[in-house]
Specification:
- By secondary structure, the chain is mostly beta strands.
- The chain is 2% helix and 52% strand.
- The protein is built from one helix and 16 strands.
- The strands form three sheets. Strands 1, 2, 3, 8, 9, 10, 11, 13, 14, 15 and 16 form an eleven-stranded antiparallel sheet that branches. Strands 7-6-12 form a three-stranded antiparallel sheet, with no helix packed on it.
- The longest helix has 4 residues.
- It is globular, with a radius of gyration of 17 Å.
Length: 195
Amino acid sequence: VARPTEVDMNSRLLCYPILLLACLPAMAVDKAAYDSHGRIIALLSDAEDVEVVSNLVAVLPSGKRVPLQVRREGRGATRQGSALAWSVPFVLPDGGRGRIELKAEESDAGVRYSTAIAAETALEVDAIELVLDLPRPAFAKGRVAPQGTAAIPLSPVRRSGPVLFRGETTALQVQDETGSVTLDIAFDKPSATAV
């Protein structure tokens, strides 16, 4: 989970630019699979595909978490031509409305995924988070290493609460048990992050 890396209060715009790179044996990911709402659903390589699901989530003052990239009657996502870019309207339970702009750029360096949120009305939220869900079976017994800290084991049984790491970082590396699948996640700026 990452909090916005950039906040412009005049336009009420939140931006999440990240770079995703999965390193598989001698192969780098240069593509991703997306759903109709612009969510990443997998990182693709010649060696092995890795299920990764992205979503933007509004955290309401009550603590309730509301996914923003969902199909709503009459208000679907719009893809911008053949580009990897989408525009997604959203409505919060209290009637607050906004729009998400998503863009992906694929290259040999990885997938650069950017999201921006513009409020159309006042939004009463504690946070808007970018969430990346990784497959537990693939990474259990592996490790996660936020940049600048020691690696944290991803043990099959949690011993102390749901949060393994909370802090600001510019990068995370998640690796499976054998080290054959590694996911590198980099942010443009230090970002409040929780694992």
